[in-house]
Design goal:
The complex is a heterodimer of chains A (112) and B (112). Chain A has 112 residues and is mostly beta strands. Chain A has no helices and eleven strands. Classes of the chains: A mainly beta (112), B mainly beta (112).
Chain lengths: 112, 112
C-alpha cells in the first residue's frame, strides 16, 4: 500500500514550456487535491476533484489545468510555465467520509 | 480566501520541554487537522478533530478543538530531537466548501 505517490520528484522548466504532474493513490479515495507550497505561505489549493470525471477550481487555479480520468489518478498540467509557478506541488487524497487528507511526497518545480 | 493565523512562527526549545502552538481562524470550522512536515517531505497527518471542545491525543501529542470553533491548539509533551519539523494546522467549515485552509506553520527546533 503505497498511499499517495507523485511523479516526478524534481523538474526544471524554461518559461513557456509545458508539463504534467502525476498523482496516484491506491487507497480508493474519492477526493483528490492539488496544492502549491511557497515559503512563508500556507498550502494553497489549486484544483480539486470529488470523483472520477469531475474537477473544480480552488483558491489559485490560474495557469493550471487538471484531469481525473481514473479514480486513482489526478493530473496537474501547466500549459505555459511561468517563473511565478516555481513552487513545491503536493497532491492529497481524502475518503468520502473521513475528513482527513493524506499527502504525497511533493514535486519541486523550478521555472527559469 | 480564509485566513488562518498560526503562532508562534518558530520555537527553539530544550529537549524535554513541553511545546504549545495554536491556530485561529476568521470563521467557524467543523474540522481541524494537525500535520507535521519534515524537510523535503510531504505533510503527515498527526491528529484530526471534529467537535468543539474535543481533546485528542496521539502519543505525546495532544490537540484541542476550541469551543468557539475558531481555534485549535497542539501540545507536545517532553520534546525529543525527532520532533523537529514544521507543524501545520488546517481547518474546514461549511462556508469553505470542500476546501481546507492551512496555517503558515510553526517551525520547531529541539536542542539536545
Amino acid at each position: 500500500n503505497a498511499g499517495v505517490t507523485q511523479t516526478p520528484k524534481f523538474r526544471v522548466l524554461k518559461t513557456g514550456q509545458s508539463m504534467t504532474l502525476l498523482c496516484a493513490q491506491d487507497m480508493n479515495h474519492e477526493y483528490m487535491y492539488w496544492y502549491r507550497q511557497d515559503p512563508g505561505m500556507g498550502l494553497r489549493l489549486i484544483h480539486y476533484s470529488v470523483g472520477e470525471g469531475t474537477t473544480a477550481k480552488g483558491e489559485v487555479p490560474d495557469g493550471y489545468n487538471v484531469s481525473r480520468l481514473k479514480k486513482q489518478n489526478f493530473l496537474l498540467g501547466l500549459e505555459s510555465a511561468a517563473p511565478s509557478q516555481t513552487s513545491v506541488y503536493f497532491c492529497a487524497s481524502e475518503t468520502l467520509q473521513g475528513y482527513e487528507q493524506y499527502f504525497g511526497p511533493g514535486t519541486r518545480l523550478t521555472v527559469t | 480566501g480564509q485566513q488562518l493565523n498560526q503562532s508562534p512562527q518558530s520555537m527553539f526549545i530544550q529537549e524535554g520541554e513541553d511545546v504549545s502552538m495554536n491556530c485561529t481562524s476568521s470563521s467557524i470550522f467543523n474540522t481541524w487537522l494537525w500535520y507535521k512536515q519534515d524537510p523535503g517531505e510531504g505533510p503527515v497527518l498527526l491528529i484530526a478533530l471534529y467537535k468543539a471542545g474535543e481533546l485528542t491525543s496521539n502519543g505525546r501529542l495532544t490537540a484541542q478543538f476550541g469551543i468557539t470553533r475558531k481555534d485549535s491548539f497542539l501540545n507536545i509533551s517532553a520534546s525529543i530531537p525527532s520532533d523537529v519539523g514544521i507543524y501545520f494546522c488546517a481547518g474546514r467549515g461549511s462556508n469553505t466548501g470542500n476546501q481546507f485552509y492551512f496555517g503558515t506553520g510553526t517551525s520547531l527546533t529541539v536542542i539536545p
